[in-house]
Amino acid sequence: MRATGQECKRVLSRTVDGETLLDIDIAEVVKRFGVVSQDLIRKDGAGLHSFTIMRDELQRVLIEALPKDLVEFHPSTTLQDLTDSTAADEYTDEGNQAPGVMCKFEDGRTMGPYDLVVAADGINSAVRQVCISEQPKSKDSGIRIQFGVGPEGVRTRPEGSEGELHQWFADGLYMLTGTYGAGPEGERREMVVAVFAEPAATIEGNENANWEVSEVQDDCKRRMTQVGAPQSVIDLVNGSERFFEVAVRYCDPFQPWGVGGFAQQDGGRTRRFRAGHVVLLGDAAHAMPPFLGQGANQAIQDAFCLAEQLRQVDQGVLMKQTMESALQ
């Protein structure tokens, strides 16, 4: 992360009229929390473990850190069903059978068996729909977010502000600008974000839309001009080479979890896979508004907590003898 991320040292919040609302020195805040936040301070004392980083680059760093002999990663695949390998007499494509969970994908593949399925497949999680009975689709919150990304050469922000996030507040519009890490060779990108409420609008498609320059860029500039946004922010919009708009969606986080999952059979319910073998992470478990990277931060915290529980199972810690007990 240090090699590719941009260290973040400050968060500055202002109105479009220039009034300072909040000025956070992240290092000072960390120091105030004492031992609780010591892990955020680098051991060499040369800064914090606090970064801004492009989403695709963060994914690359995390995927490369996975132990290839223990973890299989299946990006860009959609789950169709989960079954117990032995109870359902299921076999892998290689003809193997062993205790665990089998994954059936929409492309026809059957993979497994796996000791644990970790689902980080977003707010419309297919795994969540398998595990929770009568799982409704996510709902539109009426909040829209427009993202723009420009190359490192687009220097519209003040000199020396690379390690700062600047927030701007106006009537009906929130804006954010920042410099983000984008590669292991020190590559950087400039990002601008606009957030506004528009309940009557509808946006079709995946919440993880592809980057593209479209009418979104013109609409973003129009909104910022109307509220009197600083020219440096508007210049960053003009200099952005990638743009897209997404809808913030949500779902009920308090629905009952069908432990083990169930399938209808002969008028009754038959367990499809054993409890303690499937877990949800990130937006699949608890959707977060995509402000200041909260979705990614929460997902990483989920993964850390899961890894700690699995470590206790591996070491035979009392009360953590099985996968099921670790995940409860």
UniProtKB/TrEMBL annotation:
Keywords: FAD, Flavoprotein, Oxidoreductase
Gene3D superfamilies: FAD/NAD(P)-binding domain (3.50.50.60)
UniProt keyword Magnesium, yes or no: no
Highest taxon above the source species: Eukaryota
Molecular-function annotations in GO: FAD binding; oxidoreductase activity
Domain FAD-binding: 269-316
Keyword DNA-binding applies: no
GO BP terms: secondary metabolite biosynthetic process
Name this protein carries in UniProt: FAD-binding domain-containing protein
Source organism (scientific name): Eutreptiella gymnastica
Higher taxonomy: Eukaryota, Discoba, Euglenozoa, Euglenida, Spirocuta
